[in-house]
Automatic annotation (TrEMBL):
<dbReference type="InterPro" id="IPR011004">
    <property type="entry name" value="Trimer_LpxA-like_sf"/>
</dbReference>
<dbReference type="GO" id="GO:0043886">
    <property type="term" value="F:structural constituent of carboxysome shell"/>
</dbReference>
<dbReference type="Pfam" id="PF25084">
    <property type="entry name" value="LbH_EIF2B"/>
</dbReference>
<dbReference type="InterPro" id="IPR016055">
    <property type="entry name" value="A-D-PHexomutase_a/b/a-I/II/III"/>
</dbReference>
<keyword id="KW-0396">Initiation factor</keyword>
<dbReference type="InterPro" id="IPR005845">
    <property type="entry name" value="A-D-PHexomutase_a/b/a-II"/>
</dbReference>
<dbReference type="Pfam" id="PF00483">
    <property type="entry name" value="NTP_transferase"/>
</dbReference>
<dbReference type="InterPro" id="IPR005846">
    <property type="entry name" value="A-D-PHexomutase_a/b/a-III"/>
</dbReference>
<keyword id="KW-0648">Protein biosynthesis</keyword>
<dbReference type="Pfam" id="PF02879">
    <property type="entry name" value="PGM_PMM_II"/>
</dbReference>
<feature type="domain" description="Alpha-D-phosphohexomutase alpha/beta/alpha">
    <location>
        <begin position="637"/>
        <end position="745"/>
    </location>
</feature>
<dbReference type="GO" id="GO:0031470">
    <property type="term" value="C:carboxysome"/>
</dbReference>
<comment type="similarity">
    <text>Belongs to the phosphohexose mutase family.</text>
</comment>
<dbReference type="GO" id="GO:0005975">
    <property type="term" value="P:carbohydrate metabolic process"/>
</dbReference>
<dbReference type="InterPro" id="IPR056764">
    <property type="entry name" value="LbH_EIF2B3/5"/>
</dbReference>
<feature type="domain" description="EIF2B subunit epsilon/gamma LbH">
    <location>
        <begin position="255"/>
        <end position="353"/>
    </location>
</feature>
<dbReference type="InterPro" id="IPR005844">
    <property type="entry name" value="A-D-PHexomutase_a/b/a-I"/>
</dbReference>
Length: 843
């Protein structure tokens, strides 16, 4: 027997799932609905199938091809010009149907016994047999009434409530004799239920209804789409699964899928091939996860249906929603019950999609946004490429090889043809991949490369001014997020490029305004020699080498498995200092924050045991550091900033230091002791670098959070030089870190982070300016509210990369600091809530 699979429907009520897929190709448990139907036919030995197609026909043809991979023989009939209706499309292939045949809808899930229906049809010598089922609410279906023999004597297509006369409905599956097609006109739109069956009834042809036992679900709307999957998982319907079942846990898990041991998965659930489930992920029973899906740490999945290739960020919350193919749901985003996100869309960090909201394909929900209405038309504005610090994004998700090639070409297009650029990186595999892609993009627009390969970023910044290049690029794993890549662009002086140049690169990238060089103009790659020697010479020329030689200091250096261009131990040994190195082997993947803290504790024990002068943990590819004093106590953050400022001012009285706007007022107190000057800048690294170069007599820049700049060496942060300078200053000043720390001013410096949507940030800043006296405000970056003649202040600083604001409080009085933190936290939260309520009301 042949079967006709009606697969031409566009599935309007299933949109946005069917915007780029025909309805029969929408996946149920990671297999198209049509594949479940083909499996049902195959179980009943029906292996010759003719599929009638109309909407996006190539999707189905490309998937099933000739059907041999699925154990059947597939042929296709495409309605080219206009849809012919359920009966018209079958009439169109009448020459293929010379014996009893079965017609089955391509958009339902069922496990009916088709053979029993066929036997019934033959026993009654029926011309047309409709397979029927009983449903609680037949309003959406064609109602059929039969006599005791099963002969149909009345039916009504989609009745109103008052017209319901039976709960037996038409399932869209029919067993027909070929002669009934003679009643149908050629090449005209006609329907089985509306035209053919009433005509057969009128002509007195034998037409029967077979009430089938078993499961049937018409996947006609989004709620039914989810329910069908829950029912299959719950065992209410017989279906074939694409994956092997773990019998002990009632889970279906594909091949090459990694699930972190700390993840919690409730049965029943299905997880496809090549998935990555992160630490502490919670997956509730009923969840369906497709192939090639990545789920970040601490995500919470409450019965969502997640299609192939989706990426779910850390701490994301998905509740009984549908996440389509290739969609990204970023960190801490919420997609609530009944919501549907179309394919290739992006839900930004901490965004929320409200219940039952539908998002059409290729849309972008901004970070922090709350979406209460369907997003159908248009697209959100392209995000800026550059954040607070260069270009950053999820490794191999945002920052992919193809992205890096285009970014390199965009940067190179802002330079003159034949310009030279240095390229450097940390030693991670992901950084090597991205760097090579950037080089390809730069070469394509006629830019020559000086490839420094794996080199600490201070080395790159030192040699850039010596090499007659237009600038440089450095690629590394982000200092604060091991799953992120950070790409920094430097000018000819080694300083991060200003906003104006960032805008030019963004313009070239988004407008596709890249030049294309001819073959003979393609850029060249060179590998300069003596790069480390140049850095070491510059390093050595700025130190009191004789002092270091006489110091006999012992320093313990922890490289946290991330050293690149580790020249410091060699330099210290050359100067006569004793350098003990820990964890200097190279790991190709970054370690977590918890692992880093454990190594810091270990470093403290080693410093104590060896009676070393101090220990230091180097991070951020040679830029940042945390100190450990001789008692094993870590010195970081504001205390490290104050300690470095104190030591540098002691060595250089009446000098100037540059610190970010949020640094503790301890810096000013120390400066007053030494008749020094403090220059405050915006919180971003570029502002710190520029200020150390532009202002006279600057001896130090930066903070414990970003690293320290010694402008005589190079304009960037340098942990390696900082360590050597620290040995020198401790020796000359005859001090220890414990004694320096004891002399630092005692101040309360607290900070707190508050969620704030992007749309509310500007209004919040305006509100703070309008509600405080102008003489009490500093507007370097964010809004700083100061108490006159005291070191008490509150800073509200919007984050440049995320939908949050940072709240900093500084005071010598603990009570004042605690009170101010509570007061301003409440003020900001109250303002944000009012803004969100107003937006919701307007919508």
């Amino acid at each position: 027997m042949r079967a006709v699979l009606m697969a031409g429907g566009s599935g309007t009520r299933l949109r946005p799932l069917t915007c780029d897929l025909p309805k029969p190709m929408v996946p149920i448990l990671n297999r198209p609905i049509a594949e479940h139907i083909i499996n049902l036919l195959k179980r009943h030995n029906i292996t010759e199938i003719v599929a009638t197609l109309h909407y996006l026909p190539d999707s189905m043809r490309d998937y099933f091809q000739d059907g041999s991979d699925f154990g059947v023989q597939m042929t296709y009939a495409v309605e080219e010009d206009q849809p012919l209706g359920t009966a018209g499309c079958v009439k169109n292939i009448a020459e293929l149907l010379d014996d009893t045949f079965l017609v089955i809808s391509g958009d339902s899930i069922t496990d009916f016994d088709l053979q029993a229906a066929i036997d019934f049809h033959r026993s009654k010598k029926s011309k047309a047999t409709l397979i029927l089922t009983r449903v609680p609410n037949p309003i959406e279906f064609g109602v059929v009434i039969t006599d005791e023999e099963g002969r149909i004597n009345r039916f009504l297509e989609k009745p109103s409530t008052s017209e319901i006369f039976s709960d037996t409905v038409n399932t869209g599956t029919y067993i027909l004799e070929p002669e009934v097609l003679e009643y149908l006109p050629v090449n005209q739109e006609c329907d089985f239920s509306k035209e053919l069956f009433p005509l057969l009834l009128e002509k007195g042809e034998p037409m029967y209804g077979y009430v089938a036992q078993g499961y049937w679900c018409d996947v006609g709307h989004l709620e039914a789409y989810r329910e069908a999957q829950y029912d299959i998982l719950a065992g209410k319907v017989e279906a074939d699964f694409a994956y092997k079942k773990d019998e002990s846990f009632d889970l279906w898990i594909g091949q090459n899928t990694f699930i972190d041991p700390s993840a919690e998965i409730e049965a029943p659930a299905i997880i496809g091939d090549n998935c990555r489930i992160g630490p502490r992920v919670h997956i509730e029973a009923g969840t369906v996860i497709g192939d090639n899906v990545t789920i970040g740490a601490d995500a919470n999945l409450k019965r969502p249906v997640v299609w192939n290739g989706a990426i779910i960020g850390e701490e994301a919350q998905l509740s009984a929603c549908v996440i389509s193919r290739g969609t990204r749901v970023d960190r801490r985003a919420h997609v609530l019950e009944g919501a549907v996100v179309g394919s290739l869309s992006t839900v930004g960090e901490e965004a929320q999609i409200s219940p039952s909201v539908r998002v059409w394909p290729s849309k972008k929900i901004e970070s922090g946004a709350i979406l209460n209405i369907n997003l159908i038309w248009g697209n959100t504005a392209q995000r800026n490429l550059f954040g607070q610090r260069g270009v950053q994004g999820l490794a191999n998700i945002d920052i992919t090889p193809e992205f890096a090639v285009k970014l390199g070409a965009a940067f190179g297009s802002t330079l003159k043809p034949g310009s030279q650029v240095t390229v450097s990186r940390d030693q991670r595999n992901i950084s090597r991949m991205v760097t090579r892609s950037l080089i390809a993009g730069l070469m394509s627009v006629g830019v020559d490369i000086q490839n420094l390969d794996a080199a600490a970023i201070p080395i790159a910044r030192t040699v850039i001014p010596m090499m007659d290049v237009a600038g440089g690029i450095h690629v590394r794993v982000h200092p604060d997020r091991p799953d992120y890549i950070l790409i920094e662009f430097m000018d000819a002086k080694g300083i991060n490029i200003p906003k104006s140049k960032e805008k030019k690169i963004e313009g070239a990238y988004f407008k596709e305004d890249m030049r294309r060089s001819q073959i003979h103009e393609i850029g060249n790659v060179s590998y300069p020699s003596q790069v480390i020697d140049r850095y070491c010479n510059a390093f050595e020329n700025l130190l009191h080498v004789d002092t270091l030689r006489n110091s006999r200091s012992k320093v313990v250096i922890d490289y946290v498995y991330a050293v690149s261009g580790a020249v410091l131990p060699q330099m210290l040994n050359k100067f006569g200092a004793d350098a003990v190195v820990l964890n200097a082997s190279l790991n190709t993947t970054a370690i977590s924050g918890d692992e880093r803290e454990a190594l810091l504790t270990q470093l403290g024990h080693v410093v104590e045991a060896l009676k070393a002068n101090f220990g230091v943990q180097v991070s951020a590819n040679g830029e940042q550091l945390i100190l450990v004093d001789e008692s094993g106590m870590p010195i970081r953050g504001e205390m490290l900033t104050a300690l470095m400022v104190d030591m540098v001012f002691t060595a250089n009285p009446r000098g100037s230091v540059v610190v970010p706007v949020h640094a503790s007022s301890a810096v000013e107190q120390i400066a007053r002791r030494h008749d020094g000057k403090v220059i405050r800048t915006k919180a971003n690294p570029t502002a710190l670098m520029e200020a150390t170069q532009k202002n006279p007599n600057v001896v130090l820049g930066g903070s414990g959070d970003t690293g320290f700049i010694f402008p005589d060496l190079h304009p960037g942060f340098d942990a390696m030089y900082c360590i050597a300078k620290l040995v020198e200053m401790l020796t000359i000043q005859e001090r220890s870190l414990v004694s320096v720390r004891a002399e630092l001013p005692r101040l309360m410096h607290k900070n707190y982070t508050i969620r704030c949507p992007w749309t509310a940030k500007g209004a919040l800043m305006r509100y703070l300016v309008e509600t405080h006296p102008a003489q009490n405000l500093e507007l370097i970056d964010g809004v700083k509210i100061c108490q006159p003649y005291e070191d008490n202040w509150v800073l509200v600083l919007p984050d440049a990369s995320e939908p949050i604001v940072h709240l900093y409080v500084n005071s010598s009085d603990r009570e004042w600091a605690d009170k101010a933190l509570r007061e301003y936290r409440a003020r900001v939260q109250e303002f944000v809530e009012k803004e969100e309520e107003q937006v919701t009301t307007e919508v």
